[in-house]
Model the fold of this input.
Amino acid sequence: MEVIRLDAAALTQRQSAFDTLEAALDLPSWWGRNLDALHDCLTEAPRHIALRNRDLLEGTDFGRRLCRVLEEAAEENPLLELTDAPFRILFLCHGNICRSPMAEFVMKDLVEKAGLAERVEIASAATSTEEIGSPVYPPARRKLAEHGIGCSGKTARQMTAGDVETFDLLIGMDAANLRNMRRLWGEAGEGKVFRLMDFTKTPKDVADPWYTRDFEATWQDVSRGCRGLLDWLQAEI
Done:
Protein backbone atom coordinates (compact mmCIF):
# COMPACT_ATOMS: atom_id res chain seq x y z
CA MET A 1 0.00 0.00 0.00
CA GLU A 2 1.34 3.44 -0.93
CA VAL A 3 2.19 5.66 2.02
CA ILE A 4 0.59 9.12 1.73
CA ARG A 5 2.78 11.62 3.57
CA LEU A 6 1.11 14.73 4.96
CA ASP A 7 2.59 17.56 7.00
CA ALA A 8 0.18 18.96 9.57
CA ALA A 9 1.63 22.42 8.97
CA ALA A 10 -0.45 22.51 5.77
CA LEU A 11 -3.60 21.23 7.48
CA THR A 12 -4.29 23.70 10.27
CA GLN A 13 -6.45 26.05 8.16
CA ARG A 14 -9.50 25.07 6.12
CA GLN A 15 -8.49 26.29 2.65
CA SER A 16 -4.93 24.98 2.64
CA ALA A 17 -6.03 21.74 4.31
CA PHE A 18 -8.70 21.02 1.73
CA ASP A 19 -6.30 21.84 -1.13
CA THR A 20 -3.69 19.50 0.35
CA LEU A 21 -6.10 16.66 1.09
CA GLU A 22 -7.73 16.88 -2.34
CA ALA A 23 -4.35 16.60 -4.08
CA ALA A 24 -2.93 13.89 -1.82
CA LEU A 25 -5.93 11.59 -1.29
CA ASP A 26 -7.54 11.68 -4.76
CA LEU A 27 -10.94 12.35 -3.19
CA PRO A 28 -14.14 11.92 -5.21
CA SER A 29 -15.95 15.02 -6.45
CA TRP A 30 -18.93 14.37 -4.17
CA TRP A 31 -16.95 15.03 -1.00
CA GLY A 32 -17.62 18.77 -1.44
CA ARG A 33 -14.86 19.91 0.92
CA ASN A 34 -16.85 18.80 3.92
CA LEU A 35 -15.31 17.10 6.97
CA ASP A 36 -18.22 14.69 7.40
CA ALA A 37 -17.86 13.64 3.77
CA LEU A 38 -14.10 13.32 4.25
CA HIS A 39 -14.77 10.88 7.08
CA ASP A 40 -16.98 8.82 4.76
CA CYS A 41 -14.31 8.83 2.03
CA LEU A 42 -11.66 7.62 4.45
CA THR A 43 -13.76 4.74 5.74
CA GLU A 44 -14.29 3.32 2.26
CA ALA A 45 -10.79 2.67 0.92
CA PRO A 46 -7.44 1.22 2.03
CA ARG A 47 -4.92 3.96 2.75
CA HIS A 48 -1.82 4.55 4.83
CA ILE A 49 -1.53 8.18 5.91
CA ALA A 50 1.73 9.18 7.57
CA LEU A 51 1.18 12.48 9.34
CA ARG A 52 4.12 14.64 10.42
CA ASN A 53 3.86 17.26 13.17
CA ARG A 54 0.43 15.99 14.24
CA ASP A 55 0.58 18.16 17.38
CA LEU A 56 0.29 21.28 15.19
CA LEU A 57 -3.34 20.36 14.51
CA GLU A 58 -4.15 21.02 18.15
CA GLY A 59 -3.30 24.70 17.64
CA THR A 60 -6.45 25.62 15.68
CA ASP A 61 -10.15 24.76 15.94
CA PHE A 62 -10.21 23.44 12.39
CA GLY A 63 -7.04 21.44 12.97
CA ARG A 64 -8.52 19.76 16.02
CA ARG A 65 -11.70 18.86 14.13
CA LEU A 66 -9.69 17.45 11.23
CA CYS A 67 -7.52 15.43 13.60
CA ARG A 68 -10.62 13.88 15.18
CA VAL A 69 -12.01 13.00 11.74
CA LEU A 70 -8.75 11.25 10.76
CA GLU A 71 -8.51 9.37 14.04
CA GLU A 72 -12.17 8.28 14.03
CA ALA A 73 -11.93 7.11 10.42
CA ALA A 74 -8.83 5.06 11.30
CA GLU A 75 -10.72 3.44 14.18
CA GLU A 76 -13.65 2.51 11.94
CA ASN A 77 -11.74 1.36 8.86
CA PRO A 78 -9.24 -1.45 9.51
CA LEU A 79 -7.73 -0.73 6.08
CA LEU A 80 -6.91 2.86 7.01
CA GLU A 81 -3.58 3.21 8.79
CA LEU A 82 -2.81 6.56 10.42
CA THR A 83 0.75 6.88 11.70
CA ASP A 84 3.11 9.63 12.79
CA ALA A 85 5.63 10.27 10.03
CA PRO A 86 9.30 10.71 10.89
CA PHE A 87 11.37 13.53 9.43
CA ARG A 88 13.53 11.99 6.71
CA ILE A 89 17.02 13.08 5.66
CA LEU A 90 19.03 11.78 2.71
CA PHE A 91 22.74 12.59 2.47
CA LEU A 92 24.36 12.43 -0.95
CA CYS A 93 27.85 12.44 -2.43
CA HIS A 94 29.34 11.22 -5.69
CA GLY A 95 29.88 7.54 -4.84
CA ASN A 96 28.16 7.00 -1.46
CA ILE A 97 31.26 5.31 -0.03
CA CYS A 98 33.00 8.17 1.83
CA ARG A 99 31.38 11.50 2.68
CA SER A 100 27.65 10.73 2.59
CA PRO A 101 27.86 7.49 4.62
CA MET A 102 30.08 9.30 7.11
CA ALA A 103 27.36 11.96 7.41
CA GLU A 104 24.63 9.30 7.63
CA PHE A 105 26.20 7.49 10.58
CA VAL A 106 27.48 10.59 12.37
CA MET A 107 23.97 12.04 12.16
CA LYS A 108 22.37 8.81 13.36
CA ASP A 109 24.69 8.88 16.36
CA LEU A 110 23.85 12.51 17.16
CA VAL A 111 20.11 11.97 16.74
CA GLU A 112 20.20 8.90 18.99
CA LYS A 113 22.05 10.80 21.71
CA ALA A 114 19.59 13.70 21.41
CA GLY A 115 16.61 11.38 21.95
CA LEU A 116 15.22 11.98 18.45
CA ALA A 117 15.79 8.54 16.93
CA GLU A 118 12.07 7.76 16.71
CA ARG A 119 11.32 11.08 15.01
CA VAL A 120 14.11 11.21 12.41
CA GLU A 121 15.11 8.71 9.72
CA ILE A 122 18.46 9.04 7.97
CA ALA A 123 19.93 7.43 4.86
CA SER A 124 22.53 8.17 2.19
CA ALA A 125 22.94 7.68 -1.55
CA ALA A 126 25.17 8.41 -4.53
CA THR A 127 24.63 10.83 -7.37
CA SER A 128 26.52 8.43 -9.68
CA THR A 129 26.43 4.73 -10.54
CA GLU A 130 30.14 4.07 -10.06
CA GLU A 131 30.10 2.42 -6.64
CA ILE A 132 26.62 0.87 -6.42
CA GLY A 133 26.74 -2.10 -4.05
CA SER A 134 30.16 -1.20 -2.61
CA PRO A 135 30.69 -1.04 1.15
CA VAL A 136 31.90 2.07 2.94
CA TYR A 137 35.47 2.85 1.86
CA PRO A 138 37.85 1.40 4.51
CA PRO A 139 39.55 4.69 5.51
CA ALA A 140 36.11 6.28 6.02
CA ARG A 141 34.98 3.27 8.02
CA ARG A 142 38.12 3.46 10.18
CA LYS A 143 37.63 7.17 10.79
CA LEU A 144 34.08 6.53 12.02
CA ALA A 145 35.34 3.68 14.21
CA GLU A 146 37.90 6.00 15.83
CA HIS A 147 34.90 7.87 17.23
CA GLY A 148 32.94 4.79 18.26
CA ILE A 149 30.57 4.89 15.28
CA GLY A 150 29.84 1.80 13.21
CA CYS A 151 28.53 1.52 9.66
CA SER A 152 28.12 -2.24 9.30
CA GLY A 153 26.01 -3.40 6.38
CA LYS A 154 25.96 -0.11 4.50
CA THR A 155 26.38 -0.42 0.75
CA ALA A 156 26.21 2.30 -1.86
CA ARG A 157 22.98 2.95 -3.73
CA GLN A 158 22.09 5.56 -6.33
CA MET A 159 19.58 8.33 -5.74
CA THR A 160 16.22 7.87 -7.45
CA ALA A 161 13.53 10.16 -8.83
CA GLY A 162 11.26 9.09 -5.96
CA ASP A 163 13.68 10.25 -3.26
CA VAL A 164 12.47 13.81 -3.63
CA GLU A 165 9.04 12.72 -2.41
CA THR A 166 10.26 10.31 0.26
CA PHE A 167 12.71 12.64 2.01
CA ASP A 168 12.21 16.01 3.68
CA LEU A 169 15.84 17.13 3.32
CA LEU A 170 18.26 16.20 0.52
CA ILE A 171 21.78 17.14 1.59
CA GLY A 172 24.75 17.04 -0.76
CA MET A 173 28.39 17.44 0.13
CA ASP A 174 29.48 19.86 -2.60
CA ALA A 175 28.27 22.05 -5.45
CA ALA A 176 28.75 19.27 -8.01
CA ASN A 177 26.44 17.01 -5.99
CA LEU A 178 23.80 19.75 -5.89
CA ARG A 179 23.97 20.23 -9.66
CA ASN A 180 23.33 16.51 -10.20
CA MET A 181 20.54 16.50 -7.63
CA ARG A 182 18.80 19.49 -9.20
CA ARG A 183 19.20 17.99 -12.65
CA LEU A 184 17.25 14.92 -11.52
CA TRP A 185 14.66 16.52 -9.25
CA GLY A 186 14.19 19.97 -10.77
CA GLU A 187 11.57 22.15 -9.13
CA ALA A 188 10.38 19.27 -6.95
CA GLY A 189 13.55 19.66 -4.90
CA GLU A 190 13.06 23.35 -4.15
CA GLY A 191 13.32 24.01 -0.43
CA LYS A 192 14.78 20.55 0.21
CA VAL A 193 18.21 20.61 -1.43
CA PHE A 194 21.18 21.93 0.59
CA ARG A 195 24.88 21.37 1.15
CA LEU A 196 25.78 19.92 4.53
CA MET A 197 27.96 22.88 5.43
CA ASP A 198 25.05 25.25 4.74
CA PHE A 199 23.98 24.34 8.27
CA THR A 200 27.12 25.93 9.71
CA LYS A 201 28.37 29.50 9.99
CA THR A 202 30.93 28.80 7.25
CA PRO A 203 29.09 27.35 4.24
CA LYS A 204 31.41 25.51 1.86
CA ASP A 205 31.95 22.19 0.10
CA VAL A 206 33.06 19.13 2.06
CA ALA A 207 36.28 18.13 0.28
CA ASP A 208 36.25 14.64 -1.24
CA PRO A 209 38.79 12.49 0.65
CA TRP A 210 38.89 10.11 -2.30
CA TYR A 211 41.12 12.76 -3.86
CA THR A 212 42.55 14.64 -0.87
CA ARG A 213 43.24 11.47 1.18
CA ASP A 214 42.63 13.70 4.23
CA PHE A 215 39.90 11.79 6.06
CA GLU A 216 40.47 13.76 9.26
CA ALA A 217 39.58 17.04 7.52
CA THR A 218 36.48 15.39 6.06
CA TRP A 219 35.55 14.07 9.50
CA GLN A 220 35.85 17.57 10.97
CA ASP A 221 33.61 19.08 8.26
CA VAL A 222 31.04 16.29 8.42
CA SER A 223 30.94 16.39 12.21
CA ARG A 224 30.50 20.16 12.28
CA GLY A 225 27.87 20.11 9.56
CA CYS A 226 25.89 17.40 11.31
CA ARG A 227 25.98 19.26 14.61
CA GLY A 228 24.64 22.33 12.83
CA LEU A 229 21.94 20.22 11.21
CA LEU A 230 21.01 18.78 14.60
CA ASP A 231 20.58 22.31 16.00
CA TRP A 232 18.30 23.11 13.07
CA LEU A 233 16.28 19.91 13.60
CA GLN A 234 15.80 20.55 17.30
CA ALA A 235 14.36 23.97 16.47
CA GLU A 236 12.15 22.77 13.62
CA ILE A 237 10.62 19.41 14.50
Observations:
- The longest strand covers residues 87-93.
- The chain has a mean pLDDT of 94.
- Residues 126 and 158 are 5 Å apart (CA to CA).
- The longest helix spans residues 215-236.
